[in-house]
Specification:
6 helices; four-stranded parallel beta sheet; two-stranded antiparallel sheet; 6 strands
Length: about 140
């Protein structure tokens, strides 16, 4: 016997949503449910714009060393390089507005400092079949 595999739901963060490469077309008509976890709708378009939301200490460290340190509660400290920032500003999930046949659940914490809650509202406005759930004071993790 051969078994067919059916995918009923996909959960994702920005990295998976940000690549258009046929992803939207694969979702439409094939995946009835999509869960968006603290996703980024659109990114700043330049390194300067990206760094403008960082602390003065992070900006100074980035200017001097080409990287800055970013702490995540319970996960430790990470070094964010110029390459990481360049990769991040290339991500853009705004093409998800083309998803018309899937129901999308967007979950976002109101205390998320890594990906601002305004992104959740952008997804809500862009998607016709979207439900938005905000978790009070929850951070990105």
């Amino acid at each position: 016997l051969k078994y067919a595999r059916r995918q009923d739901c996909v959960s994702s963060s920005t990295k998976a949503m940000a690549t258009k490469d046929g992803k939207t077309e694969k979702i439409n008509g094939n995946i009835p449910c999509f869960v968006n976890l603290a996703g980024v709708y659109s990114q700043p378009t330049s390194i300067d714009e990206y760094m403008s939301s960082k602390t003065q200490l992070e900006r100074q460290e980035f200017e001097k060393n080409g990287y800055y340190h970013f702490s995540v509660l319970e996960r430790g400290e990470f070094k964010v390089s110029r390459h990481d920032v360049e990769e991040r500003i290339q991500r853009d999930s705004s093409h998800v507005k083309e998803i018309w046949s899937s129901w999308v659940l967007t979950i976002h914490g109101t205390g998320d400092k890594q990906v601002g809650v305004e992104n959740a509202y952008k997804f809500k406005d862009a998607l016709q079949n979207n439900e938005l759930v905000l978790i009070d004071n929850a951070d990105h993790n």
